[in-house]
Amino acid sequence: MESNPDLLYRKKRKSFNGLDSLYSKTIQKFKLNVQKYFGIDLDSNYNYNSKFNLPVIITDYLPIVILLLILNYLINGNIIPKPFTTSIGNHSPPENFFKFTQSKFLGSYNLHGLTSKSTSFIPVTDKYIFPRVQDINTLKELSYEDFFDVETYGNPKNPKSFYKYSLDFYEDIDEDEEIINIDKDQNEKAVKNSEIKPKYSLSQQNAMKSFKQTGRKIYKGNENPEIILVTSINFENLNPSYIVKIIQNRVDYAHTNNYGVYSRWNQEFLPMFQKTRNSLDSWSRIIAIREAMIAFPKAKWFWYIDETSFIMNNQININNYILKKESLEPIILKDQSILQPDGFIKTYSDVKFEDISIILTQNENGISVDNFIIKNNLYGKAILNLVLDPLMKTYPKFKKDVSTTLSHILQWHPILLSKTVIIPPRTINARVNNNADIDIKYAYQNDDFVISFANCKLLANCEKQLTPYWEKTQLKNKDD
Amino acid sequence: MERKNVTSQSINDLLEASSNLEKNIDDDDHFRPKDKKTFTLKHKLIPNQLLRLKTNHYIGKIVLATLSLLFFIWLIFNGYRFTRSSSPKIVMVLAVNNGGGVERWKTPEEWSLERTSIANKKDYAERHGYALTLKDTTLKRRYSHEWREGWERVDILRQTMREYPDAEWFWWLDQNTFIMEPEIDLNSYLLRNIDKKAYRTINYFNPQDITAEAPYVDTTTSPINMIITQDCNGFNLNSFLIRKSEWSELLLDAWWDPVLYEQMHMVWERREASCLEVLYSHQPWIRESMAFVPIKAINSLTKGNCWDQKDDKTLFYNKNDRDFLVNLDGCNNGDRSCWNEFEYYKKLRNELHKAWYKFW
């Protein structure tokens, strides 16, 4: 009966005595085992007076411990085993790298334009930003040294001097402090007033000031025009009356269609291109668009319409005319060679409207930069800045005409090419055909949207060429 | 109560017997001694060994409990082996086969350390569920002009981005790199909240004197698309990360331009890294999306590099800092030996990761 496991279990379940006995039995068994294997009697009262008990244990076990340590040394190279020498905390890899970071350099910073600081923007609510036209004659009186600081390089015998932006381009320099300083010494002030004539007349001072301030103007109005007409103008080789007509033409058009206007003097960008001897009129247009993107950050499209082009029809809304899916997709010239007439690299045939960021027209030689449209996105900004790269500016082939740079970039960078479309020239870039010697697909015909007097600066007759067309539009406006 | 012999019973009888068993569970007679040849239903359903455990050998239970506890502990530390994501967000691009034995035979040592390097990255990728792709960088004819082979990595990255359309980050690694802390998860260590961790200006360390402030740059609105480090010579591209995006496509496209190359290839000593420095300094759209982290974060140098700055502790690997990755770039220059250095760091890695409870 006792040996039957079932019954034993049953009994254990019935009473706690069974459990107790099991417990005591286990203890006894443990004590027996200890006595058997380790030679220590746990039941007997330990004799603390005995002088020989402890040394006996040491002499018995020390050699074994030493042997183990030697073995550990032979195997691992350490006398004391690793668990006793290392702490656990040492072993966690880092969760971050903050201890290598200098926190004062973290954080973002804001954008600014070529000649502005993020704190020195001049907010304007007028969506037509253009330089003061009434200053043209005053500006012509002044020399470049009056606008810019001059830096001199090279040996003293044959120095090379370059213009650079003076500090008052970036922010208004407060002259009040100087005046106060002078006030302290009343006599000195009196002497100055009587003897020294100011270097510049008041109108010259104003002209210089507004020349330097245009680059800091940014639009802060509520209308947020979607399309901006950008024009960069050279005030030296064009008549003031011509410039007035051109700017008035842009403003009229923008007013009819609720667009914005952004215009700059080419001369403002002289320090950018003087050292590398780039053609100022050709290259300024690129940087003018880039500046316009700072002035109108919320605009969608920037239409560069150059100083020799004239909008003939205010009623054509370029948004419906070109910048809509339905109107743009049918007129795209697919598989069009970048270099005319038979360049090797061609535009893609399957560009989607959503991807289009660069809209160009061509002339007989290839890409024309008289009239083109750039979207305000990564690709638009990237292509403008790639053109403006200092290494592009220094490349001899590109210096004369910026369209060569543009077509180089399109031919070598397929990602940008895939965002580019070429449309027929007569859409926004029809050329005047005075001598009837231009191919009809490039030439202006009645009721075209834009007329371009592309060579008028070479012939120095821009105003003469413009006059008949200007009169035409004036008559039309009167009729309306 | 009559006991039934179930050896030759039908299933119906079995069921009946089991219901009887339930009724009589507390009956004393149920536990009466049995004939050795008689099998009860209970003996049929429960294995003998288990019965014995239940009755007297609770030591068995302790053993079981210990084993299962050990199993769970193992599971905690090794559970990552079972968490595989089908489309990894991080792809490690490892450039192997440097030179590819075109100019001379590859030595056995070179073969061996290539294997070491691959195994190191493979272990790391498996541990965190990242993808690892090996890219062959054999000398090729189309990269043979002057320093042009550096741009091969641009083509490789473009090709890898096409290969993994769902991945987000691509981590470029040269062959001569060694991950020292495989526990570190790149996502929590670096990529999560990267805006707060990385420098958006070059002011913190500027060995190439790049203009710190440029027009048209707006880092407040543009995301970080590329994370690189700088050593004493400037941009270091032995270990960097790039995010698949419109921006990175455009950068990889713009990185190579014949007009830039034609004018500068004699000047650009560090090839594509020098080119990237130039692009960074001139192109605001590139500057906007690039960010820097301290070199010790993902790309610690070894003492052979940057000899003039050898006392600068912010550049070099230090085992007390437990740096993430060691970059053995230039380990074959002069009297250095890649083999020795790899072996040294391999040993050091193992030493640092020896479990505290292990004797050997």
From TrEMBL, chain A:
<keyword id="KW-1133">Transmembrane helix</keyword>
<keyword id="KW-0812">Transmembrane</keyword>
<feature type="transmembrane region" description="Helical">
    <location>
        <begin position="52"/>
        <end position="75"/>
    </location>
</feature>
<dbReference type="InterPro" id="IPR029044">
    <property type="entry name" value="Nucleotide-diphossugar_trans"/>
</dbReference>
<dbReference type="GO" id="GO:0000009">
    <property type="term" value="F:alpha-1,6-mannosyltransferase activity"/>
</dbReference>
<dbReference type="InterPro" id="IPR008630">
    <property type="entry name" value="Glyco_trans_34"/>
</dbReference>
<dbReference type="GO" id="GO:0000136">
    <property type="term" value="C:mannan polymerase complex"/>
</dbReference>
<protein>
    <submittedName>
        <fullName>Alpha-1,6-mannosyltransferase</fullName>
    </submittedName>
</protein>
<keyword id="KW-0328">Glycosyltransferase</keyword>
<keyword id="KW-0472">Membrane</keyword>
<dbReference type="GO" id="GO:0006487">
    <property type="term" value="P:protein N-linked glycosylation"/>
</dbReference>
<comment type="similarity">
    <text>Belongs to the glycosyltransferase 34 family.</text>
</comment>
<dbReference type="Pfam" id="PF05637">
    <property type="entry name" value="Glyco_transf_34"/>
</dbReference>
<keyword id="KW-0808">Transferase</keyword>
From TrEMBL, chain B:
<keyword id="KW-0472">Membrane</keyword>
<protein>
    <submittedName>
        <fullName>Alpha-1,6-mannosyltransferase</fullName>
    </submittedName>
</protein>
<dbReference type="Pfam" id="PF05637">
    <property type="entry name" value="Glyco_transf_34"/>
</dbReference>
<keyword id="KW-0328">Glycosyltransferase</keyword>
<feature type="transmembrane region" description="Helical">
    <location>
        <begin position="58"/>
        <end position="77"/>
    </location>
</feature>
<keyword id="KW-1133">Transmembrane helix</keyword>
<dbReference type="GO" id="GO:0016757">
    <property type="term" value="F:glycosyltransferase activity"/>
</dbReference>
<dbReference type="InterPro" id="IPR029044">
    <property type="entry name" value="Nucleotide-diphossugar_trans"/>
</dbReference>
<keyword id="KW-0812">Transmembrane</keyword>
<dbReference type="GO" id="GO:0006487">
    <property type="term" value="P:protein N-linked glycosylation"/>
</dbReference>
<dbReference type="GO" id="GO:0000139">
    <property type="term" value="C:Golgi membrane"/>
</dbReference>
<keyword id="KW-0808">Transferase</keyword>
<comment type="similarity">
    <text>Belongs to the glycosyltransferase 34 family.</text>
</comment>
<dbReference type="InterPro" id="IPR008630">
    <property type="entry name" value="Glyco_trans_34"/>
</dbReference>
